[in-house]
Amino acid sequence: MYSLRKQWFGNVRADVLAGLVVALALIPEAIAFSILAGVDPMVGLYASFVIAVTISFVGGRPAMISAATGAMALVIVSLVKDHGLQYLLAATILTGVIQILFGVFKIARLMKFIPNAVMIGFVNSLAILVFIAQTPHFIGGSMMTWLFLLITVALIYVIPFIIKGIPAPLIAVVILSVVAVFFGADLKTVGDMGTITQSLPSFFIPDVPLNLETLQIILPYSIALAIVGLMESLLTAAILDDMTDSSSDKNKEARGQGIANIINGFFGGMAGCAMIGQSVINVKSGARGRLSTFVAGSFLMFLILVLGDYVVQIPMPVLAGVMIVVCITQFDWSSFKYVVTAPKQDVFVMLLTIAVVIYTHNLAIGVISGVLVSALFFISKISSITIHEKNNIHYVEGQLFFASTEGFISYFKNLSIEQESITIDFSNSRIWDDSAVGALLKVKHTLPCEVHFIGMDQSSTAIMRQIMDKK
Q: What's the CA angle centered on 240, arms 117 and 358, to 5 degrees?
């Protein structure tokens, strides 16, 4: 009870102020992510409100901001295009169910098996895809479109040197929106992309057939959303753990993200997850507790209810400029140095992850591909086994498992034996699986002499006995 009270009311002033700042910064990004996904701006705004408020109660990482994100928007583009909003909402609910199951089965433990090269590829490919998604808003546009785009980017970089208390993207959006309206600039606006409704979200069940065909449509998207959402959320949680020198419950966070997405889907929001950029802004603004996340979501909805008529007048080139800066900030520029200094296999994995994500427009497929290739490289590396002989004792060095048994058997198959017995020493080796035990038995039964195995550690001996007993 004390811990819960501390998480909510142990840092009230800083949490409230940080939450207000984040809410202001969420508006342009929530709208931009909605447009990126091909849905009305309210879908992203409702999602950001519902997810942020819900996760403040059920999440595992205090002060982390969860809302509509670019990573999730990229996954659902084709679903919205081919099947519409109702199927997106159904997929969002199913995503939540899958994430809860991930949390129950402690799937967060698998995060440690994702190599750094894959993580770098994930972050960079996300930045590249979001940038590509902005190009229709300015490529082929008028000179005025390009002017507002470039000025937006410039202002976001310049404003922090002058004003530090208010997010630069928000100031840029307000200033340039006022200028566009005052001078009657001929630019596409948020209102051209969809309707801003000045009302609270209402509960409803997605209007989709409850049958196997619907499940076949939404399941692949829901699995991808669940994986991408948890990856970004758990990565963000780890970053905040380091920043605040504290720990968080990753499995509780997985369950919390699931609960938030289920509720979100029933209130008309797109699937969401933790936001790296906004969470860092929140913590750097002094937030440490759950109250900051609650305030961010609540104040965001208040702003929409009060200022909705003005939001529709925001020029699209300005939002595109905001998103381009998000891409520039999120891209890991140190990866260029990484390409030069890292092992070639790791560089290949990073580039492969980026290439697959960009080709498929699916972050989950890219990450899984990167992990699998990295695992193959690792297996190839540790499957090298060497054997040398001294005084009729054959010393095995390396790990003996399914990938290295061929070399082990081949050595003894080609060995010229004149003695009545030989000894194989496993002091610098280890037996890992059934294939390894099978290789030992094959060598023992095919060599024209007596074979003695020595030097096995406790684990190797145990697996030998376990498999031998079954045979």
A: 35
258 exposure class (CB count in 10 Å sphere: 0-12, 13-18, 19+):
buried
pTM exceeds 0.85 = no
Q: How many CA atoms lie within 13 A of 84 on its CB side?
A: 5
Amino acid identity, position 350: M
Amino acid at 272: G
Consecutive H or E run containing 68: strand 66-68
Contact 118, 371 (CB under 8 A): yes
**DSSP conformational letter for 404:** T
3-state helix, strand, coil in the chain (%, to 5): 70, 10, 20
Query: How distant, in Å, are the alpha carbons of 58, 72, 331, 346, 362 from that of 349?
Result: 35, 23, 17, 5, 16
The DSSP 8-state label assigned to residue 70 in this structure reads H
Question: How many Å apart are CA 322 and CA 320, to the nearest integer?
Answer: 5
Phi, psi of 401 (to 5 degrees): -150, -170
Cβ neighbours of 4 (radius 10 Å): 9
- 10 Å CB burial of residue 336 (0-12, 13-18, 19+) is exposed
**pLDDT tens-digit map of 349-386:** 999 999 998 888 777 788 889 989 998 888 888 888 88
Query: Closest Cα to residue 192, out of 35, 44, 30?
Result: 35
Domains of the chain: 2-334 (no CATH), 383-470 (3.30.750.24)
Rounded CA gap, 465 and 441, in Å? 12
DSSP string, 248-271: --HHHHHHHHHHHHHHHHHTT---
How far apart, in whole angstroms, are the C-alpha atoms of residue 274 and residue 251? Answer: 14
Dist. CA 1–CA 83, nearest whole Å:
46
Question: pLDDT, tens digit, for every residue of 195-234?
Answer: 777 788 889 999 999 899 999 999 999 998 998 898 888 8
